[in-house]
Design goal:
Blueprint: E1 2-11, E2 14-25, E3 35-40, E4 43-54, E5 72-81, E6 84-94, E7 104-110, E8 116-123, E9 126-130
Antiparallel strand pairs: 1-2, 1-9, 2-3, 3-4, 4-5, 5-6, 6-7, 7-8
């Protein structure tokens, strides 16, 4: 799966923590080379190792072209936040067709002690996620 975009932390109709941008190239087989970066409020998370990946096909999503065997990417990994190693990430990206307005993201980042430092989820405001065939 490839893509990226912006998610806004919203409580009702109010933006509570601003814009979260992300860009990625991730594979269902975590032995491949993967890349994921999350940016928000002057912070930068960079994935250094994808440790777990699942790629299910949600029957409620219609990713359209190109045809892929999945439309949801669920991943876990390790990385660095602001150049400090030891952070963990859990993320879910969905592809629900073009031009990406139905795509969603869940991003949870924890520090080396397991304390949550970022938790954001919602639809893409800008951007697109694209599932690809293996």
């Amino acid at each position: 799966m490839t893509g990226g975009g912006s998610i806004f932390d919203i409580d009702g109709e109010t933006v509570v923590e601003g814009r979260n941008t992300h860009g990625f190239v991730v594979h269902c087989d975590p032995r491949n080379s993967d890349n994921l970066q999350i940016n928000w409020e002057g912070n930068r998370f960079h994935l250094t190792e994808l440790t777990s990946a699942m790629c299910p096909d949600d029957p409620l999503l219609t990713p359209e072209s190109p045809d892929a065997q999945f439309d949801t990417f669920i991943g876990m990994g390790e990385g660095r936040l602001n150049n400090v190693n030891g952070y963990q990430i859990y993320f879910v990206f969905t592809d629900d067709g073009q031009p990406g307005v139905g795509d969603t993201a869940v991003i949870i980042i924890t520090d080396p002690n397991g304390v949550e430092v970022r938790n954001v989820e919602g639809p893409l405001t800008f951007g697109n996620h694209q599932a690809h065939s293996n």
